[in-house]
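MODEL INPUT / OUTPUT PAIR
PAIR INDEX: 1
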Amino acid sequence: MARKTNHRKGKGKKVYSIIVDGETEVWYFQMMKRHEKLLSRVDIKPELPKKKRLSEQFKLVNENAKIYDEVIWLIDFDTIIKEEQEFKGNGESPIQELERYIKAFFNNKKVHLLVNMPCLEFWYLLHFEATGRYFSQCETATSSLKKHVSDYQKSQKYYTKRDNDIYKKLLPFQTKAIENATKLGKFTLENPKTAKAEIYQVFQLLGISK
């Protein structure tokens, strides 16, 4: 649970909480902190809820919005599609639940809800391809990624190794990835089954110029 302390006291910089639903996102943002010159003006704190359900993530976002300057909530939509397919029709569906959360934060300028469709690996793929192909599963997006990064692995060792971590490996292609992701536009629940990588907005929010 987030600690109710003043993270800005004495530091003179903005502090961003980034709520994610997977370890790979945590490692990616940790490597961002390693390579980007952020620490003099901002600090980012990637955080993985103990429980990955949308309701638990929403609770953590609300808690952190009271503590940090801004909160970024990053969602992999393939998980929601899977849960929607398994939904038995009792009560609120996963997509209806997400819609409620989007509306809850609509006027909250401190919270930024970003969607990757289907997952983080699609964002990586955009470093190498200008594609709008819709992947319903992360595994298929990962297969396409491996055509460009044959040794890709979803492991902490691979993501964080000192000589060639995931962020450093992708950094030469990052400007192109942001350009490709921007062209895909923003995620909407009216047409959810379209390729998106809204993670590119993190660079704008943190003031990382590319």
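PAIR INDEX: 2
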Amino acid sequence: MLDSDLAAIYGTSTRRLNERLHRNRERFPTDFAFQLTAEEFKRLMSQIATSKKGRGGRRKRPWVFTEHGAIMLATVLSSQVAIQASVRVVRAFVRLREMVAANAEFANKLKDLERRLDSHDEEIIELFAVLKRLLEPEAKPKREIGFHVRERAARYRTKRRL
């Protein structure tokens, strides 16, 4: 976002915003805030309807802020909107940390449950195998086909000759 846009959001002037930026320059590395190059500034001026130099409008290259820079800017400005934005950001981070902690606890409980179920899986498989064996009918010996005579053996006496 451009410095003028953020100044409007935070309820301060662009001059005041840039002043706070320069006084706290160590808080704004290049990935938080940077100034447009002359070529980028020229293209920006051609896209928006502003008056020429000397008749109002921008004379200096604007500063551009990333998401992190806009949040950092809220901490160095003293307008009510900037203070409220800083408080909201801190609360959001606290809430985010609580959510991460809750998710970590949930993940640990889920892993513990998986570990218990993994050991139960083997036991459940074994239980089903036993139940399956119990439900199967017992294998009876097959009867032979045909007629079987069952009679007592006759006692035949033979005399011995000597």
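PAIR 2 NOTE: The chain has five helices and two strands.
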